[in-house]
Amino acid sequence: MDLYEVTFLVAGLDDRDDAVMDRLHEAIEDVSVGDRGDLAEVTVWLNADTADVAVREAHVQLESAVTACTVRQVDLDLVAASDIAERVGQSREAVRLWVVGARGDGDFPAPLGIVGGRNATRVWAWADVYGWLSGSKPELVKGLPRPVPTPVAMLTNARLMSTQLIGAELLEAREAAAKLAHATEQPGSYTPAVH
Questions:
Q1: Does 193 score more than 60 pLDDT?
Q2: Which three-class secondary structure state does DSSP give residue 76?
Q3: Four-point Cα dihedral 57, 73, 34, 62, nearest 10
Q4: For the purposes of burial, counting CB atoms within 10 Å of the CB of 23, is it exposed (0-12), middle (13-18) or buried (19 or more)?
Q5: pLDDT of residue 54
Q6: 4 near 148, Cβ under 8 Å?
Q7: In this structure, are residues 78 and 37 in contact, taking their beta carbons and an 8 Å threshold?
C-alpha cells in the first residue's frame, strides 16, 4: 500500500461550522480543509493499493461525514517551476534545466498549460512531475505522499461533471413537469388531447 494525497474541491462544506469540522475529523483520520473562494479545498491522506481506490475511498469518507457537501472535482495541483523547486528542495535553475532537457533524462513532462500573457508561466500537474522525479530523481520525492495521477484525476472529474450535469437536467425536468401539472390543474387551462 502507498500513502496517497487526494485533494478535492467541495461545495457545501462550511469550515467555520465547528460541528461539521468535528464530524469530518472524526470520520477521516488525516484531513485538512482550506478555502478556495466559494469552494472548500479538502485534502485527505490515506493508504491504498491504487490511486483509483484512494480517490473512491476519500470521496466516500468525505460525503459520508458531511452529507450536505458535494465533491465538485479532484484538484490537479498545478505547479509552476518555482513551486516544483520549493517542494523538492532544489533551485529554480535546476528545475529550469530539467524542463529544457539539459539535466536529467531529458523527458520532463510537458506543461499542462500556460498562464498569463507576455510573461507567461508554464504550469504542470504535480502528479506528472512527481512521476518523472520518481523515475529520474527518486531521492527527491522519497517520503512524499503519492499524488493522484493526472489521468485518474481527469477521469474522475469527467465522471463528477457528468453526474452533476445529469442531476441538473433531472432537476430542470422535474420543475418543468411540476409547472405543467400546476398549469393543467387550473380551470380553463389547456389539456392535451389523448388519442
A1: no
A2: coil
A3: -30
A4: middle
A5: 95
A6: yes
A7: no
pTM: 0.79
CB 77 within 8 A of CB 127: yes
Q: What is the pLDDT of residues 33-50, one digit of tens each?
A: 998 889 999 999 999 999
Measured between alpha carbons, how far is residue 29 from residues 11, 22, 25, 43 in Å?
21, 12, 6, 11
CA distance 187 to 183: 9
Q: How far apart are CA 66 and CA 170, in angstroms?
A: 23
Residue 45 three-state SS: strand
Is 134 within 8 Å of 126 (Cβ atoms)?
no
pLDDT in tens, 154-182: 999 998 888 877 766 666 766 777 776 66
CA 43 from chain centre, in angstroms, equals 9
Q: Are 8 and 39 in contact (CB under 8 A)?
A: no
Q: Which residues contact 74 (CB under 8 A, 6 or more apart)?
A: 6, 7, 8, 55, 148, 152, 153, 156, 157, 160
Which of 97, 103, 99 lies closest to 111, judged by CA?
Answer: 99
